[in-house]
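Database export, one record per block. Field names are fixed; values are copied verbatim from the stored entry.
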Amino acid sequence: MGSRKIKNEILAMLQGQDLAVIMALMRRYPAKDVVNVLFAAICRDDQRLRWHAVSCMGDAVARLAETDTEAARMVMRRFLWSLNDESGGIGWGAPESMAEAMSCHAGLADEYVHMLISYMREDGLEICQDGNYIEHPGLQRGLLWGVARLSGCRPRLLLDRGTDESDILPYLRAEDAAIRGLAALAAGNLRLTATGTTLRTMVDDPAPFTLYQDGLFHAVTVSAVVQSALEDMNA
């Protein structure tokens, strides 16, 4: 089958409603072919297509890692490069796709989680500083979605690699409602009780945002996510 035909078929699939069905269809194609098409899809303006592409990218990269670890690493490095200033690009969809791949594959998570964490941290003055801070608010939304996603399935990994309240607190004070809400979700998943004081000041924050989870789009408010986070911490 020609690459153009595969591309058109995959892009059409991503417009479907049921993520489980979409993924089942995607698995009929070689993982490398799927990944190549999805790189163009994760930065599309169409929200359903873009987010389904992120989910399918994670699944495809995980499949690739099972048969060709180095090829999967090359994909992860491509995400990293797209977020590098020297790449000349912006890296739309890269933090989300990295996190989704790490959510789907433990080996990739162990190998690359430190890079996801580094994007929350300033470079600083120390020689050994590990920060690669992302300034763009749009990319920050993707980053915090990724942290929230990974903290929901691999919280211990993030905690063991040093993720703490100092990484999350600045985002709880962000102007962007989605960033605040996603940071609150991550704080709850990680049980970062030291963020509790700040979270309690946010319980009446009515700002709405759309939360993508498990193939579905949920209309939520910062207040609702904050309250859920506080409940998780007290559970």
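Remark 1: The chain has a mean pLDDT of 94.
Remark 2: Residues 33 and 176 are 36 Å apart (CA to CA).
End of record.
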